[in-house]
Structure formats: C-alpha cells, structure tokens
Input
Amino acid sequence: MHSIMLQNFVVRFVSLALLSLGLAQTSGAAMIGTQQVVQSEVRDGRLTRVETILAREDVVRQLVAFGVDPLAVQSRVGNMTDAELLALEGKLDQQIAGGGGALVVIGVVFVVLIVLEIVGVIDVFKRV
Output
C-alpha cells in the first residue's frame, strides 16, 4: 500500500516537474553600446549635480517657503527626461548666487597681485 502511494506521489511530482519546464521564461542578452554607457553616465552626473543643489539648506528653505515638499521635488527630478534635466541644471546654475564665481574672483585677484608684485608696482608680499 505504501509503495503504491509512494509510486503515485513520484509520478505526480515528476509530471509536475516536466510540465513546469515548458513555463520557463527566457531572457535575451545583448551588448550595450558605448554611446548608451556614456549617455547613462552623463545623465547620472547631471542628476547628481541637480540633487546636490536641491539638497542645499537654502534651497530647501526656499522650496518650503513656496509650499513645495522637497522630497516630492527629489522624486520628480529622478523621473525627468534628459532634456528636462539639462534645462533644469542650466537654470539652477544661473540662479546660484556665488556658486563658484567667488572662487574665480579670488583667483583672478591673486594672479593680478602676483603679476603686480613681479613687475614691482606693489610690495604686498615682502611684508609677509
């Protein structure tokens, strides 16, 4: 009796296993082009820059003052197309006050002082 039940169980198990082989899904693999990788990395870089700007404390304060949830902004930025992300990045770069411009001004002033020192017009660095 037990051997018939065991045999019946094994037959049903093997039948089920054979039927499930036909249900297996196949997946296709393909080569990823260099252009796709470069575009993906450029997008990731833009996304990181925009998210960094939007995470700044002053920007978050301004978003809250406008009644916008900063978390909602972060999620929407992640869903933007490449063109929208590029446009937003350009607008944010234009709006940032002193977002790198201060370093350029300090660098230019320093170079001008060095040139004037070398020419002999001023004696700023001899006192130091």
